[in-house]
Amino acid sequence: MRRLDAAVALLIVASLGAAAAPVRQEAIIDLDPANTTINFTLKGFPHTTTGSFRLKRGEIRVDPESGRAGGSIVVDANSGATGIGMRDSEMKDRILEARSYPEIVFTPRKVSGTPLARGVFVMTVSGTMTVHGAAHELTMEVSIDRRGDDFSAAARLNIPYVAWGMKNPSVLFLTVSDAVLVDVSSTGHVIWKIVR
Prior knowledge:
Layout: H1 2-19, E1 24-31, E2 37-42, E3 44-45, E4 49-62, E5 69-81, H2 85-95, E6 103-113, E7 118-131, E8 134-147, E9 150-159, E10 175-176, E11 180-195
Antiparallel strand pairs: 1-4, 1-11, 2-4, 2-11, 3-10, 4-5, 5-6, 6-7, 7-8, 8-9, 9-11
């Protein structure tokens, strides 16, 4: 009789364990603005323009099982700087119209790839970039060097700003490309949150 009771108890415990909701984790990726660089290169003739922007904040949430993502990476459009005041004013006032559109925002929707617990790997991130008041589809490859829950990341983007509705600042014999190359590097930390 005792053996029967013990078997019934084990069956109940096993069935309760099977019925319990599986534990899922969400990765919250926090980017450090102080350790983030956003540099751009605009090819032109007779010279190429280089400059930078500042990250205001960045947090990405990823479901590791499905790859679904959320959160946002927010860049200060008014922080754009090339080192020449007149050119900076032109970029912010006439091209980005930063007074009306003060933020450039990337909103991730999907992350794919095979992450490693340590070392370098590449992930593909898809989402939308909202700049100059309009949202545009964007997919980028991000190279990640992970050390446990700390990481550094780098990505290169080719932004077709004219096709996205912004003005080309070319005048007379000073010409520039219709697309701008953007290099981003950042460090951050991953926090794991249990979701039900």
